[in-house]
Amino acid sequence: MKRTLPSLVALEVFEACARYASFTRAAEELGITQSAVSRQVAQLEDFLGIRLFERVRRRVLITSAGKSYAEKIRVILRQAERATEDITAAETGRVLHISSYATFASKWLAPRLHLFSKRHPDIAYQVTVLTHHRAFASPDSDVDVAIHYGEASWPNALLDLLMYEKIVPVCSPEYAALYRINEPADLERATCLHQSRADAWPDMLSSLGLQNVSPLRGPKFDQYAMVIEAALTGLGVAAIPTFLIEKHLAAGELLQPFDVSVRSRHAYYLVYPEAKRNWKSIKAFRRWIVAQARLA
C-alpha cells in the first residue's frame, strides 16, 4: 500500500525550525542554506495544505497547528533514529549508554572502567546519572543499561544481580577522638549521619541491640557522596557501604571505630531492555560488570 507521506528531509528541516523558532539556526544545524530551509518548509506546507509558520517581518512564529505537528514529528524522528542505532549496534556492538546513581558511578564504576576499556577497546560508551526508574519505558529513551538499587524488578527490562551492600559505621579519626567513639554504646553521644534511604541506621542499631539511640536522629543527605563528605569533615558517624569508602579507609581519612556490619535490605542490579539483550556491547558489559561485582 502506497503511503501518503512528506519527504524525510522536509520533516527534519521543519523539526529543526520548530525547535529553534528560526530558519537561520535550523540552516546552521543542518548545514544547508537558509533559502533551502525556506523551500523545504514551503513544500511541506503545500503538501499538508496547512500553514506551519507565520512570517512576521524578519521573524517566523510557529502556528498552533505547527507546534502540535512538530511535537509528533519529533517523536517519530527520534524513534527512527533509535531504530537505526539499534540495528547498527546489534551488529557492531559499539554503542553503549550507561546510566547509574552518581555515587556508585564515581566511587565504584568509574575507577574500574579502564579495565573494561582495556578488554574492549572497540566499545565506545558514555556514563550519565540515573534520575528515574523508567529509563526504558519510553521508545525514544537513549539509555542502554542502568545500575539500579532496590527490588529485583524494573519495567520493560531484564536484571542481573550485582551485589548487596556491606554497611559499616565510620567517622573521621578526629571525631572518634573528640567524642571517644570506641564501642557501640558510645553512639549514644554521637551524631548519626543518614542517607535518604532510611534503613541503614535502624538495621545497624538493631543488630547492636542499642535501644537508647534513636535511628532517626541526625542530619539526612540525598546521596551517599554527601554523607561521605560530612563524615570526612567530622560532622558525625555515618553508616556507609564499604565499597564506597575503600580509599578513605585505606588512607586513614575514615575509620571504623568498632567491628560491626549489616547487609543492605536490597541489592544493586544491572538492568537492560529485553530487546537489546543480544547487543554485543551489552553482552560484553554484562559479563565484565558481573565479574567485577563478584570480586568486590
Fold and architecture overview:
The protein is elongated, with a radius of gyration of 27 Å. It contains eleven helices and ten strands. It is α/β, with parallel strands linked by helices and 296 residues long. Helix 1 (8-20) crosses helix 3 (34-48). The strands form two sheets. The protein has an eight-stranded mixed β-sheet with strand order 4-3-5-10-6-9-7-8. It folds into three domains: 8-91, Arc Repressor Mutant, subunit A (Orthogonal Bundle); 95-158 and 267-295, Periplasmic binding protein-like II (D-Maltodextrin-Binding Protein, domain 2); 165-266, D-Maltodextrin-Binding Protein, domain 2.
SSE map:
Elements: H1 8-20, H2 23-30, H3 34-48, E1 53-56, E2 59-62, H4 64-92, E3 97-100, H5 102-109, H6 113-119, E4 126-129, E5 145-150, E6 157-170, H7 173-178, E7 192-195, H8 200-208, E8 220-221, H9 224-232, E9 237-241, H10 246-250, E10 262-273, H11 280-295
Parallel strand pairs: 3-4, 3-5, 7-8, 7-9
Antiparallel strand pairs: 1-2, 5-10, 6-9, 6-10
Compact summary:
By secondary structure, this protein is an alpha/beta fold. 42% of the residues lie in helices and 20% in strands.
> How many whole angstroms does the radius of gyration measure?
27 Å
- Poorly predicted regions are none
Provide the CATH architecture of the largest domain. Answer: 3-Layer(aba) Sandwich
**General shape:** elongated
Order of helices and strands: HHHEEHEHHEEEHEHEHEHEH
Distance between the termini: 57 Å
For the report, how would you describe the main beta sheet? 8 strands, mixed
Question: Helix segment count?
Answer: 11
In total, the number of domains comes to: 3
**Residue share in β-strands:** 15-25%
The CATH top-level class label of the largest domain? Alpha Beta
Structural class: alpha/beta
Average pLDDT reading? 88
Strand arrangement, largest sheet? 4-3-5-10-6-9-7-8
CATH superfamily of the largest domain: Periplasmic binding protein-like II
